[in-house]
UniProtKB/TrEMBL annotation:
Protein's recorded name: Co-chaperone DjlA N-terminal domain-containing protein
Lineage start: Bacteria, Pseudomonadati, Pseudomonadota, Alphaproteobacteria, Rhodobacterales
Pfam families named among the record's database cross-references: TerB
SUPFAM superfamilies: TerB-like
Record organism: Profundibacterium mesophilum KAUST100406-0324
InterPro entries xref list: DjlA_N, TerB-like
Residue span(s) of domain Co-chaperone DjlA N-terminal: 23-140
Length: 147
């Protein structure tokens, strides 16, 4: 399953994702940002589960299952540039903007802005075609909710 998904994801001209594929690809980005600092903490996994549950209306067990699948995809996914380009080409701007907000939730899950996670997110936003301004607004929205 993962190999076929990666093959579709990295095709020269990927078709728009079906909902399930978009969920999996975007969940894999959440995992990638959480792993960026070399520590994939239980708080980050829990936050990913909550983000996925809220975002897609999933039960907690289903969100955890999606995250587990995304962990496999992230481990097998190509470099971040090709991975994000494929998502950018297959997912609407509005969806990508929502993903940036979810990514900020993961970066801020442990209460600190780790340099590696922060740097990766600042790199991911333009790769996903999201402006710095919109990414900053997404971060501010997340920070406001966390207060």
């Amino acid at each position: 399953m993962i190999a076929e998904f990666i093959k579709r994801l990295t095709a020269p001209d990927p078709a728009p994702f079906a909902d399930a594929d978009a969920r999996l690809a975007l969940a894999a980005l959440l995992v990638r940002i959480a792993r960026a600092d070399g520590v994939y903490a239980p708080e980050e996994r829990g936050r990913i589960d909550r983000v996925l549950a809220a975002r897609y209306g999933l039960a907690s067990g289903d969100a955890a299952e999606l995250r587990a699948q995304a962990e496999g995809v992230e481990a097998e996914a190509p470099d971040t540039v090709r991975f994000t380009r494929a998502i950018k080409d297959a997912v609407s701007y509005e969806e990508r903007l929502q993903v940036i907000e979810a990514l900020w939730e993961i970066v801020l899950a442990d209460g600190t802005r780790d340099d590696e996670e922060d740097a990766l997110l600042r790199m991911l936003a333009p790769m996903l075609g999201v402006s710095d301004r919109d990414s900053n607004l997404a971060r501010q929205s997340v920070e406001k909710r966390r207060q």
